[in-house]
Amino acid sequence: MEKMSRVSTALGSSAISGRTMFCHLDAPANAIGVCRDAMQVVVAGRNIFKIYGLEEEQFVEKLNLRVGRKPSLNFSCADVMWHQMEENLLATAATNGAVVTWNLGKPSRNKQDQLFTEHKRTVNKVCFHPTEVYMLLSGSQDGYMKCFDLRKKESVSTFSGQSESVRDVQFSMKDYFTFAASFENGNVQLWDIRRPDRYERMFTAHTGPVFCCDWHPDDRGWLATGGRDKMVKVWDMTTNRAKEIYCVQTIASVARVKWRPERKWHLATCSMMVDHNIYVWDVRRPFIPFATFEEHKDVTTGIVWRHQHDPYFLLSGSKDSTLYQHMFKDASRPVDRANPEGLCFGLFGDLAFAAKESLISGDTNRKPYPGGDRRYPIFFFKKPDLTEQFAHVSSALSVFESSLESRRMDWFVKTAHLYLLSGKPFAELCDHNAKVAKELDRLQVSTTWTMLRIMFSDPANLSTPGPNHIGKLGTLPLMNSFSMKEMGMGTESRLDRSKGESRQDNIHLELGNSLINSNNDENEETEGSEGQAEYMFGDAELDDDDLYSMELDNQAAEEQEYTLPQEAFPLRHEIMDNPSAPEHLQQDKADSPHASGNEAEVMCLTPIESFSLISISQPLFSPHLPAHFFCPVVREMLSHYAEQGDVQMAVSVLIVLGDRIRKEIDDLTQEHWYMSYIDLLQRFELWNVSNEVIKLSTCSAIACLNQTSTTLHVNCSNCKRPMSNRGWICDRCHQCASICAVCHHVVKGLFVWCQGCSHGGHLEHVMNWLKSSSHCPAGCGHLCEYT
User: Which regions are annotated as WD repeats (predicted)?
Assistant: First the structure.
């Protein structure tokens, strides 16, 4: 009852009532218009031109204006408008360039009144003057606007926008002589009908065509425009320069825009393609629609409010051949389905989190807003209508600041500058990048590069010490260390020889003060070391024959002399099989029932209080393992870095490894990594590094990034005409186009020129010239400046 009373007040004695309803049309509609009393609607299209009555429960067809056996193109309508002062007068814009008026008061079947054929191309829009009965305005694809006096048979004024096609024309609701026109080049022009020679004002409203415009019914200075850039903008035209005061971002090109009656901040829009819904926006809250009508199944082509003082009924036509009446109370409210929680990272790592106040009301550590709660005013002059307001969902915002050190991104920039991705052997690239990461205290990344070098490099090319050198082993780790205590040995332990030969010599050694070094160049026994005895072996594994029987005796009287063979260890020979750690050290084979008789001879070790470590060094893998053996591990590693946000590492490894790993990762994932890294590089203005990454990429979608927008159109510096792509000689004046003003030679490389006088030359020559003189080197007298 409250709603009906408000409607009755607005419309006087004739209150509008009804429900959401629709009817099927004979053909798709291009435009609709409503009569002054809001009881009839006209639907026009390429193959339809009918008038329907708006009854309480349904649409009723009243009149079909397409009459005759052979309907002409005058009935193919691109736009239609019903005069708001004269209820029997209609105007249509035809696709053949004709402007037709229709008089419904005629007694004959054919209601056509006047025909104007002055436009040369399709007429996109017709508009009656809001108060002048006989004044009609049209805008056409030919770029002209014409004003017609319906009492005459031709136009009285022609307006040339000196621009591309006109997409919309609208008379101002408050200024009698003013109308606005929108163009396909993105401009909006304001005209005075008394001055057809020149527009009063022009400004660029959108990037791309402006498809529609609409004056605010109450505020005389507000003009709403919609374009292909998916934006609706509200302009204040009362200032000297058009000022954009509101901007609404939609999801598709805006085809129609209509202010909502009796609601200052609301306007309705529909799209030209993709989106089939009709949206009502509150310009003060442009990020989410106030209401949505979702009934149409195809593109909505025309919208109009049923009455100029009724905000509750909206009429629409569509390409799905339906005509709808929407009740505002039946519209869906997107804000009711909106998520009140939000999460966002700042540029320097700060985290902002918004949630309902009810969820964090118990947070005692939260500081209250110093200004208090100002969402609700102290006094209300009248009770607000909740259906006409956004839902009151208040969120509390929490900001978590990161430490100053964590905000720094210097490591990213330095790494991007210092990393080497090509131009050197694989091992050198890995070593260099590992060094760079280590200097930046990124130890995990440095270790990753080192592991990649070990995995994918030829082991024979690794710079490691000799196979029998005992001491510092460079970068190869010690894989197996055996302690006598860990092997479960007592005071005596026996080591069996694996070969069938028996050795009779038992050598008694004093462990603890002897160290045996075996070098490739010279083999000698070194005694006197005070460190713990340590036996180390190179790439070749220790053979059983090389383990001599030893027996320790603490009594000096029983100690006997011994002799070593000519070589402390047999000369290195080719080993076909590289076994793992010697298993015969794990247990006493003499006690095993599986030990053969030839392995019965043992040697006894009588250890002293400090036991030795026998450390056997071997490579991480067999040299015969193929490179793709490590690909699954590397793939998981790259995914880990990418998930952690370090796409720089993922892309760098991807480029350095090349074909070794590229086939293991799908193209979409690679493209995502590349695009993310390139975006970061461009954010930090690392253009050269970004271009290098693009060039080294093998993804077709990435490689073409630096090939777009690379066309350079050059004009001849002599005749000022466009140059062809062949050579450096102009085809018209037959002179060299790019001559250096300093050395007078043809510039075939980097060319720099002054935008003031168009003279230029080699970059270095021009820079050197301008260091000592500010005048143009060509002698034209212009004061050139190099920036």
Answer: 116-158, 203-245
* Cβ-based neighbours of 335, under 8 Å, separated by 6 or more: 288, 290, 390, 391, 393
Q: Are strands 534-537 and 613-616 parallel, antiparallel or unpaired?
A: parallel
Q: Which residues of 74-104 are buried (b: 16+ CB within 10 A; e: fewer)?
A: bbbbbbbbbbbebeebbbbbbbebbbbbbeb
Residue 534's beta-bridge partner residues? 613
Select from 225, 222, 219, 212 the least CA-distant residue to 301: 212
Beta-bridge partners for 648 = none
Residue 593, classified by CB atoms within 10 Å of its CB into exposed (0-12), middle (13-18) or buried (19+), is exposed
* Helical (H) or strand (E) element with 4: helix 2-11
Q: How far apart are CA 296 and CA 321, in angstroms?
A: 9
Check: CB of residue 103 under 8 Å from CB of residue 116.
no
pLDDT value at residue 338:
80
Per-position DSSP letters for 489-525, written without gaps between them? --S------SSS------B---TTSEEEEE-SS-EEE
- For residue 52, the surrounding DSSP H or E stretch is strand 49-54
C-alpha torsion sign, points 178, 181, 186, 187:
negative
Dihedrals phi, psi of 665, to nearest 5 degrees:
-120, 130
The predicted structure's pLDDT at residue 504? 40
CA distance linking residue 770 with residue 149, whole number of Å: 65
pTM recorded for the entire structure: 0.54
Distance, in Å, from the CA atom of 341 to the CA atom of 332, rounded to the nearest integer, reads 21
DSSP string, 345-373: E-TTS-EEEEEEHHHHTT-TTPPPPTT--
How do the residues of the chain divide into helix, strand and coil, expressed in percent and rounded to 5? 20, 25, 50
Strands 300-307 and 310-318, how do they pair? antiparallel
Greatest alpha-carbon span in the chain: 147
HSE toward the beta carbon, residue 483, CA cutoff 13 A: 5
The contacts of residue 726 (CB under 8 Å, 6+ apart) are: none
Distance, CA of 509 to CA of 648 (rounded, Å): 57
Torsion angle (degrees, nearest 10) of CA 457, 462, 468, 472: -120
136 CB neighbour count, 10 Å cutoff: 24
Note the pLDDT of residue 161. 83
The set of long-range contacts for 541-546, using a CB threshold of 8 Å and a minimum separation of 24, is 541/575, 541/578, 541/579, 541/582, 541/616, 541/618, 542/582, 542/616, 543/570, 544/496, 544/497, 544/498, 544/499, 544/582, 544/584, 545/497, 545/499, 545/501, 545/503, 545/570, 546/570
Report the Cα 95 to chain-centroid distance in Å. 41
Give CA–CA dist 514/525, Å, rounded.
Answer: 9
| DSSP 8-class letter at 576 | S
What is the mean pLDDT for each group of 10 consecutive residues in the chain (787 residues)? Answer: 33 65 92 91 92 90 84 84 90 91 89 90 93 92 92 91 88 90 93 92 92 90 93 91 92 94 92 90 91 93 91 93 92 85 80 80 53 42 58 78 70 92 92 94 93 78 41 39 39 39 39 38 38 41 40 42 52 51 44 41 41 46 67 91 92 91 88 92 91 88 77 70 70 78 85 82 89 87 83
pLDDT value of residue 562:
47
The token duo for 761 is: 């030359």
Per-residue exposure over 201-216, b if at least 16 CB sit within 10 Å of its own CB, e if not: ebeebbeebbbbbbbb
Identify the structural domains of the chain with CATH numbers, from first to last. 161-332 (2.130.10.10), 339-370+391-407 (no CATH), 409-456+628-710 (no CATH), 711-786 (3.30.40)
Identify the pLDDT of residue 415.
93
